[in-house]
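Researcher: I'd like a candidate sequence for this fold, 151 residues long. If you have to choose between options at a position, lean toward the conservative one.
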């Protein structure tokens, strides 16, 4: 008989008929109250505290008119292609041991919203890290591509 256990304690087991699975008599029932119970138990045993800086940007793609010297125009790239290269559609976890960060698009595609979050290290001033100068210092390496990437 299947059961759901948390820390070795049986917290739920099925009653009644079984559902047929593809390999054998298996089934998976995960009622909302079980998930809530497990999350509450996990949350009470895990502590995480950190200060993060989060920026939400409304972006306007470059064009040959706004950035005439941008080298990708000569390679046939269109403004939307450039936007997709520098601000990918996927949400990204940047697993940098020195400074974890996350970034990604959100909202409607036509709104062109992008979010970047980074952790404030112990000893750093969160307010100072949120200034345009400091955020630029942290974010720009992620938005700078080597020319060799494009041939």
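Model: Candidate sequence:
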């Amino acid at each position: 008989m299947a059961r759901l256990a948390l820390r070795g304690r049986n917290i739920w087991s099925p009653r009644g008929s079984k559902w047929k699975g593809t390999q054998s008599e298996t089934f998976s029932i995960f009622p909302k109250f079980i998930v809530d119970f497990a999350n509450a138990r996990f949350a009470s045993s895990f502590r995480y505290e950190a200060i993060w800086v989060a920026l939400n940007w409304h972006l306007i793609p470059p064009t040959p008119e706004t950035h005439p010297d941008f080298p990708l125009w000569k390679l046939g790239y269109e403004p939307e292609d450039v936007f997709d290269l520098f601000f990918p559609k996927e949400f990204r976890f940047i697993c940098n041991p020195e400074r974890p960060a996350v970034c990604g698009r959100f909202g409607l595609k036509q709104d062109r919203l992008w979010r970047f979050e980074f952790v404030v290290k112990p000893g750093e001033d969160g307010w100072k890290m949120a200034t345009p100068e400091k955020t630029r210092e942290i974010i720009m390496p992620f938005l700078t591509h080597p020319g060799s990437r494009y041939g």
